[in-house]
Amino acid sequence: MIWLSVVAFVVAALAAGFIVRWMRSHAAAYGNGMPQRFHFGDVPRLGGVAVLLGVAVSWLLGMVQVWMGDSSSLRLGGLPGAWLLVLLPSALCGFVEDLTQRLSVRYRLAFTAVSGVLAMLLLGLEVPRLDLAWLDLLLQAAPWLGVAIALLAVAGLPHAFNIIDGYNGLAGMVALIVCLALAHVALQVGDRALAALLVSTAAATGGFLLWNYPRGMLFAGDGGAYLWGVVVALGSVALVQRNVLVSPWFPLLLLIYPVWETVFSIYRKLARGVSPGVADALHFHQLIYRRIVRSVFHDDESRRMLMRNNRTSPYLWGFTLLTVVPAVLFWNNTPVLMVFCALFVVSYVAAYMAIVRFKVPHWLRR
Where are the domains of the chain? Predict the structure, then answer.
């Protein structure tokens, strides 16, 4: 498992360096007027290609190792190949959007839905239980509901990661933390195959982050966000499906930040009569950038923006750890996990409203 992770890290880091050196020209197509843009200059948005290469090489080498005797007892079988086939439609459509800026939200939703369908067909993915008696009875009476929930997770989580992908190191670090948390619990229940796939993904993400944070020389783009979303969704659903000891509320609490950010964003846009597919600059991380991370002084405007950009992500890393830590500690305790999910929702809304109304404590505004 360790050597596969080293391979993933090295391949991703080298590929990212190649992209930074030789593929800057495509970045000029990204307009300065985009509301999500918080940087100067033309920065490549193909970091997801580097992550995909690191993941693919590592997973395929893992399959080769299994065929040669599986000395590490990973028991991967054909799982890496199936995961690659599932994530390719989403990742490729993201890369097309990164290169052209012309792929509509409708088409991107369609391609992530294709990944969801492939997950059902190739992996038999479904959510078998929710650890609530009446809901479990409903799932038993209508098994298609479990399949629908899994399909929604695989099709929807890539867009949730895309929403939080706004600042250097934000989405990448969240993906890395979540992958490692899922891998930790997978090892606790003896699921080494899932752990190997998730640790390799975290390692490939680390190779990308070398170029993304803090210098902002490369962005993950839609392709990177979609790749993270699909892999994390596959790992979350498979972990619950393959291991009865793991509470289905564990991955929900683990991912409550990007999931609730997406749900809340849809709600506030619909409340204003705006399509949920329209980009804006009112996401939680964007408000932190504009109203909390302000005391940055530098004569060079581009340098000042980069410094503010870099100081934004740690706020969200800490916010993420507030859910990851209890999720990892209570991964098999459904009632406690449900309480923490509710606490996060209340805390998020309270924090969002405080920032909007300029009621942030002075010690947080730096």
Answer: 2-364
What single-letter DSSP state applies at residue 41? S
221 closest CA partner among 69, 5, 43, 68: 43
Tokens 């939680």 sit at which residue?
284
- Cβ-Cβ contacts under 8 Å for 66 (sequence gap 6 or more): 74, 75, 76, 77
Judge contact between 157 and 258, C-beta under 8 A. yes
Kindly compute the dihedral angle of the four CA atoms of residues 192, 196, 199, 204, in this order, to the nearest 10 degrees: 180
For the stretch 311-364, pLDDT in tens is: 788 888 888 899 999 999 999 999 999 999 999 999 999 988 888 777 666 655
- The tokens describing 174, both together, are 């969240």
When comparing pLDDT for 75 and 91, which is higher? 91
pTM of the model: 0.90
The crossing angle, in degrees rounded to 10, of helices 144-164 and 221-242 is 140
